[in-house]
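Budget justification, computational time. The allocation requested in the original proposal was used primarily to generate C-alpha cells for proteins on the priority list. As evidence of use, we reproduce two of the resulting records. The first is shown immediately below.
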Amino acid sequence: MKTTLNGTAVFLITLPTMGAEPLRDNPSMTTATDFQRDLDLGLTWLNTFSNLGEDFYTPVSPQALPQPYWIGRSEAVARELGLPAHWLASDELLHALIGNRVIAGTRPLASVYSGHQFGQWAGQLGDGRALLLGDTANGLEVQLKGAGLTPYSRMGDGRAVLRSSIREFLCSEAMHGLGIATSRALCVVGSDAPVRRETMETAAVVTRVAPSFVRFGHFEHFSYRDQHAQLKTLADHVIDRHYPHCRLDTGNPYAALLQAVCLRSADMVAQWQAVGFCHGVMNTDNMSILGLTIDYGPFQFLDAFDPGHVCNHSDTAGRYAFNRQPAIIYWNLSCLAQALLPLIGDQTLAIAALETFKTAFSAALEQKMRSKLGIPAHCEIESVQLRSLIEGILSLLAHERVDYTIFWRRLSHSDGGRNSEAVRDLFLDRAAIDAWLRDHAQCLAAVPTQQATELMLRTNPKFVLRNHLGEQAIRAAKAKDFSLVATLLTLLESPCDEHPGFDAYADFPPDWASGIEISCSS
C-alpha cells in the first residue's frame, strides 16, 4: 500500500510573514484610533492546531482589502460561536473578517498538506487562500477564505471572488439546513478590489467555521514524506480532540480512527446521494477527516435527474459524476488508509477498517431512501421489495429526466398516493408511474397516512440551492443588492418548511439555467 514520490524531494515553501496593511493608512477606515487596537470579541481562543508546531503550518497574517462591505451574515453561526449578535452589525468585525484588523487571541496560519487531485498524486499543496485564525473554547475552528497570499498559493493570488464566496456561504448553510454534515459559514464580506479570473471580478472573503479543517491530505503529506513522527502527532491530535473513543477498548487506535472516518464519510455521501447533491471536486485534499462536506467550489443540486451528471466543467473525464461519488469516497478512503498504514502497522487491519465503508454506506442510503418514501424505520418491509421500489423510481426519474427535488416534494404531498395527480403530471409514461405509485401505496399500507406524510415532508426539502438561484443572487450582489442573499439564507436554513409566498424559489429552473457552467474557479 506504500506509494513513493519517485525520489523527488518535496520541500516546505517558506515566505516572510505577511501582515495586514497599516490600519491608519487604509482610506476605508473611519476611526483609525480605535482600529489600531486588537479587536476583542470576547471569545477564548485555544489555538490547538498551532500548538502542533510549525512542521504543520506557516504563520501568515491576512492581507487587507479596501472599503469592505457586508454581503451576507448568519446569526445562527454567530450563536454557535458564542458571538454576541451586535458584532454582526459592527464595522470593527467587518474589517477584522476581511483582514484589516487583528482579532485578539488569534494566531493566523496556513496549513500544509498534500493530496491526490483527479486521481493523480499532486504532491505538496496547502492552504493557498485560507487562513486558520484559531479554535475557540467551544471547539470550533474559524478560517478566512480569500484573505490573501500564503506560502502554498503556488501560482494563485490567495483571493476569492464574489461569485464563489456567495455560493460557498449559501451552500454551507443550505447543507446544514438539510441535516448534512458540513462546514458552516459565519459571513461573506466583499470589497471592490479587482481580482482576475477568466474575467476581472471583485474580491470577497468567507468566514468558515468547523470543528476541524484537517483533511485526508494532511495525513498523506507526512506519510509520503516518511515523517512518521509528525504523522503520529497529527493522528493523536485528531483522535484526542475528535475521536476519543478510538483509544477505548481497542488495541490499535489508528485502525479505529480509519474505521471511524469511513463510517462518517459513508453517512455523508449517502446524504449527498439522497438529496441529489454533486460535490464536483472530490480530491483527497478536499475530504474532511470528520466526514464534513467542505470546499464548496463547482457543486450543484440536481435539477433533472441524471445519474451520470457532471457538474464541474473542468472535470472533462467525468471522474466526479454524481453516480460515481460513493466509489470516489471509497477510493479517497483507501488513500487515507495508505497514509495511516505506518501507524496502523498491519495491512490486514487497515483493509478491514476500510471495508466497513461499503456496508455502512448501503445501510445509510437505504435508511435515507426509506425516509424519502415515508417508510419509518420500525416498519418491516422485505429488502427485495424496498430495493425494487427505490431502483424503480430512480430508473423512471432518470429515463424521463424528471426534476429530482420537485418529484420528492410532490410525492410528500400525495397523501400516501391518494392525491397523486401532481406527481403523475411529471411523467410522460403514465402507465409506468401509475404502476410504481401502486407499489408505493402497498408499502405504505401499514403506515398511518399522517405519519408517512410528516416523515416525507421533513425529509424531502422544498428548497435547495439550485444553480440559477445562486446565479441570481450573484448578479444582484454585483449591483450591491444583497437582499436575495438574505432571502435565500432564510429559506435554506429551514428548507423543508413551506415558507408561504416564496413558492417561486421552489419552482422549475428557467431554460437559461442549463447553460450555467461551474468549474474549479467557481
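The second record produced under the same allocation is shown here.
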Amino acid sequence: MTNSIAEIAGADFILAIGTNTTETHPVIALQVKKAKREGATLVVADPRRTGMADLAQVHLQLKSGSDIAMLNAMANVIINEGLYNKEFVDTRTKGFEALKETVAKYTPEHVEELTGIPADTMKQVARGYANAKNASILYTMGLTQHICGTHNVFAVANLAMLCGHIGKPNSGVNPLRGQNNVQGACDMGALPGVFTGYQSVTSDEVRAKYAKAWGINDLPAKPGLTVGDMLDAAGKNVKGMYIMGENPVLSDPDADHVVHALEKLDFLVVQDIFLTETARLADVVLPATSFAEKDGTFSNTERRVQRVRQAIDPVGNARADWQIVSDVATAMGYPMDYNSTAEIFDELASVTPSYAGISYDRLEEGGLQWPCPTPDHPGTQYLHKDKFVGGIGNFSAVEYIPPAELPDQEYPFVLSTGRRYYHYHTGTMTMRTGALEVHYGTESLEINPADACKLNIAEGDMVRVKSRRGQVEVKANLTEVVPPGMVFTSFHFPEVPINKLTNSMKDPICKIPELKVCSVSIEKVS
C-alpha cells in the first residue's frame, strides 16, 4: 500500500476495484465503512454484487476482464474535461501526451459496449474521483489475476497520477494483501528477480553486496522462475522442488496439470504444518511450526513490520522454518550457523536500505513502516511524498484486451473464483478449527436464477461444471449476487477442487495466471 490502513477512513472518495473487501479483508472494511459514515463516496467495480457493492453509492457491475477499458474511459473524461491535476502532471510525471492519445478512443459511449457500464455512470465516477480532495483506490486479485493484470495496475496508477491522488495522506494506490505476511515474504526476496527490499538480481553492485555478506564468490544475474514457470518446467529443466507453506494442488490453475507436473519430478520436498494435498505427493515432508510456535517478524499490507513472539513450544517433531532451512543448507555444503531470528534480522537490515533502521529493540516498542532507512527514522506513513522512487512518475498507455478465454456455444458461462468470509485459501488451517467449518461447511456455486431456470436447476441441486481442462460437481446456490452468464465459487474446499477448471494462461509480464475468468458449461447432475 502506498498509504496506511487508518488513512482509508479519511478519504473523501474510495474506488474499490476487484476487491470483495467486506468478506476478504473485514478489518480494512471497517475503515471503508468509517469513511462512508463521515461522508465519503464509495464506488465499487466488481462483476458480482458483493457486500462491498451493497455498501457503495455506485456499483460498477462491469463485465469480467474489462477493467482497462473502464479505467481508460475515466481517464478520457478527466482529460477531456480538464479535471486532471495539471501541476502534478507537469512537475512529477512524464508520458502524459502518450496517455492522452491512447485514452482518446476510450469514450464512455464506446466503453459502455465493452464493460456494460452506462456511459453517464462512468462520467459521474470519473468526475467524483478527480474532484475529490483525497481519493483512495483499493484493489486485490480481482484486478491482478488476468492476462493483463500488470496493465490493469498501470491503468490504476495512471488515474492516481493524473489527479495527483498519490504522495499525500488519505489517498494513494492501495493493494490489499491476502494474508498477514505475504508482504513480508516479498520484502524478503521471495520473488524470482530480486533480493531483499526489491533489489534486482541483475545489478552488479547489488549482487556484489550480497556475495560479500554471504561469504561467496558470485551470485547468478539471471532471474529465476515463477511458480507457474517451475511447474511447466517440472520433469524437464526442473528435477526437484522444495515447497514451503503452499498448496498448489488446490490453489493453482489447471490443477490436474499441477499434479502431473509434481509427479514428473525426481524429488519433491514439502515443508508445512499439515499434510496438505500437495504434501501427500512429496518424497519428504518436513514438519514446520505455526505462527504460535514462531519467533520473528511479520510485515503486513501497509508495510508495517511487527514482532511475533513464540507462545508455545513446537508440537511433535515440528521445527522453525529458519532452523530447517539452515540445516538443509548446511547439509548441502553451505553452512548456516544462525543462533536466533534476531541475528537473521540484523543481517537483513545490513543489506536492505528500506529495513536498515529497523531492529528487534525498536520493534519491542511497536511496529515500524518501511522505508525506515536509519535507526532514528520514525518509519514512513505514506509513500512518494515529494517524489517517486524513480524520481518521475511514468504514465503507461495501456490498451484493453479481452480475456484469454471467452464464452462460446460449448462453454457459455464465465467462471470466476475467490474467497469466502469464513475460510482462507485451500482450507489447510480453516477446515481444522472445529468452528469455522461448522458455520460454512460445504461449498456451492453461485448461479443467477434466470440461468438456473433455463437449465432446470433448483436451489441445492448438484451441478456438473466443466471447462476445457476438467470438471467438478458442486451444489447450486441461486442468487442475484452474480449477473446472468456468470458463476462463482471459492477454491477453499478440497472436495470441490475448482482449480481443475481454471485457465493457466498468464500475464506475460508478472506471470500471474488468469484465475478470474474462464469459460465453463453447467448441467444438472441427474
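A brief technical remark on that second record: The chain has a mean pLDDT of 94.
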